[in-house]
Amino acid sequence: MVKIKKYWTVFKISIQNSLIYTSSFVTGLIFYAFIIFIFINLWRVIYLKKELIAGFTYNQVIWYCIVTELITISTGGNIFRTISNDIKNGAIGYNLNKPYNYIFYNISNNMGNVVIRLFFNAIIGIAMGFIFVGRIQGFDVIYLPLMLICIISAIFLNLILFSAVGLTAFWFEENSAFFWIVQKVMFMGGLFFPLDMMPGWIRNIALVLPFSYVTYAPARTIVKFNPNDFSWMFLIQVTYILVLLILNMLIFRKGVKAINVNGG
User: Fold this and answer.
1) Which of 15, 48, 91, 162 could make an SS bond with 86 (beta carbons 3.0 to 4.6 A apart)?
2) Which domain holds residue 181?
3) Phi first, then psi: what are they for 56, rounded to 5°?
């Protein structure tokens, strides 16, 4: 309980610090609004002579993009840069003796920043959605708590995934290429359009990988909620979160051991 309270405090402090830098939020909001405006017009042209594509209406696709971009832009790659820089400049050494777990500390710290960005971006996204396409077709507010759980799980999965990528700095002087590769693969996990629109074999491969559970799973849960689909997607999210947490711990311990052996 004490340990949880410790990271909860880090989370709250991160929120307070994030509210100070309003200029970065304004820039992020403008960028997010611009991206959504592009998708609104792009998909309008695609749907000119069609009512449904792979079971999705124009309304559902726009809301789908609003959610996927909301998660992607709000999370960003801050945790990767923080961990990677700590290792490269030696700051990691000062964190080893601190009374907290380095991985959980960074997740809590970045989560505070993400929550603020998510909140303000959501206001913009929801406003644009209602203005341009109206409310989500078939949306049932009774399932909103489950939808929010799926979004929170997606954010945790995203942070833990890029945390692992950041830890590769223990062995690679320049590891930004790994971040770029993972980020681009994540783009193909249903960021720009639902996986349902992809050929079956590609969709099946994407559903095995963790990337689609950062974007596709929460977005599809919101625009086309189905209890059975939610159950298996949430279960896979939790499974990947646990697996990647363990992977983070193993990589971190091995990296720290290498520093101690080499006197770094």
Assistant:
1) 91
2) 2-262
3) -110, 135
Structure tokens at 33: 């609004």
Find residue 38's DSSP bridge partners: none
Biggest alpha carbon–alpha carbon distance for the chain: 66
Half-sphere exposure (Cβ direction) of 3: Cα atoms closer than 13 Å: 7
Distance of CA 75 to CAs 28, 107, 227, Å?
11, 11, 26
The domain tally of the chain equals 1
pLDDT for 14-39, tens place per residue?
888 877 766 667 788 899 999 999 99
190-194: long-range contacts, CB 8 A cutoff, minimum separation 24: 190/68, 190/215, 190/216, 190/219, 190/220, 191/68, 191/69, 191/72, 191/215, 192/39, 192/65, 192/68, 193/61, 193/64, 193/65, 194/54, 194/56, 194/61, 194/64, 194/219, 194/220
H helical segments located in the chain: 2-18, 22-46, 58-75, 78-88, 92-95, 102-132, 144-166, 176-187, 200-208, 216-223, 227-262
Structure tokens at 121: 């971006």
**53 SS3 class:** strand
C-alpha–C-alpha distance, residues 151 and 144, integer Å: 11
pTM (predicted TM-score): 0.91
| pLDDT tens per residue, range 73-115 | 888 778 999 999 988 888 887 777 777 889 999 999 999 889 8
- Residue 23 — φ and ψ, nearest 5°? -65, -40
CA distances from 174 to 85, 92, 119, 150, 244 (A): 10, 16, 33, 33, 22
